[in-house]
Specification:
The chain has about 300 residues and is α/β, with parallel strands linked by helices. It has two domains: about 5-245, Aldolase class I (TIM Barrel, Alpha-Beta Barrel), CATH 3.20.20; about 250-310, Orthogonal Bundle (Arc Repressor Mutant, subunit A). The chain contains ten helices and twelve strands. The protein has helices at about 55-65, 90-100, 115-120, 135-145, 150-165, 185-195, 220-230, 255-265, 270-275, 280-295, and strands at about 5-10, 15-20, 30, 45, 75, 105, 125-130, 170-175, 200-205, 235-240, 295-300, 305-310. The strands form three sheets. It has an eight-stranded mixed β-sheet with strand order 1-2-5-6-7-8-9-10, with helices on both faces. A two-stranded parallel ribbon has the order 3-4. β6 (about 105), α3 (about 115-120) and β7 form a beta-alpha-beta unit. The longest helix is centred in the middle third of the chain and has 14 residues, at about 150-165. Bound molecules: iron/sulfur cluster (SF4). Iron/sulfur cluster binds near residues 31, 32 and 38.
Length: about 300
Amino acid sequence: MHYRYVFGPVPSRRLGISLGVDMVPHKVCTLNCIYCECGPTTDLTLRRKEYVPFRTVTRELDAWLSSHPAPDYITFSGSGEPTLNCRIGEMIGFIKQKYSKIPVAVLTNGTLFSDPGVRRELLEADLVLPSLDAALPGAFMRLNRPHRDLDVVRHIRGLTDFRKEYKGRIWLEVFLLPGYNDDEENLDALKKALKGIAADRIQLNTLDRPGAVKGLRPAEPAALERIRKDWDFPQLEIIAAVSERKQKASYNENIEDAILGTIGRRPCTVEDLSRILGLHINEINKYLDTLEADRRIEVLEMRRGNFYQLKR
Ligand code: SF4
């Protein structure tokens, strides 16, 4: 079967082996974050609709889950904002009813949580991973470049309201970028907002892949450590590097497609691809050489090594 909306499984930093479900087309999002590893947003919108056909996604999930070992999580993620799909609640319900043993996670930027209907649709998920990078309007605009009708105060209130209504776990990600949200005023405002939201975990992250904008630099480990100490939340952690794949298995039959599908979602190193696809580095390299010669992919040099991405 050719999968369009179900992808992976990928070894995720936070979720182990995670089977991805993409509920919106590439870069349909409420934000256009400068650090987005999927590139610039092409459809900056707040409009909720059935962006991808519900029946096709359930068919793909059924086909995948009946022929592979169960993943650690089924995760709504991908290269856009999944809560923009107006049937995400139904989709979570479908999984919980048919595959009740597999936990469901939702990776979201959380900007639509100001809508009580969106919050209600996520109540059945086991884990929700929203983001909050800025608590002041200036940093929100510069870092997240939101749709013009979004406002950071409502964003924070939406997250706080969700915490009160939702019984599952919330792991909130804060993305730190030097020069954008790491000054004292922004860090103080963020600390106050985080206190109110009271997530089960707060995960500090920074750039380790190329973002949508060139020339960004990651926060230094020592700076992240200083913030951790200063904020002093017991549930705060600095996110570690990608964990090793728990089981080695070659899930994708068509290797070239699998490589293109994986780096189409975010740029990867050879090592990332090797872990994700369960293939030897030498084998991945063979394909990368051919794809590069065919000018279908390109290389970007970053601190963590060479990253491959689709040729723009
Ligand atoms: S990082 Fe997430 S929220 Fe930001 S633009 Fe990319 S997909 Fe949208």
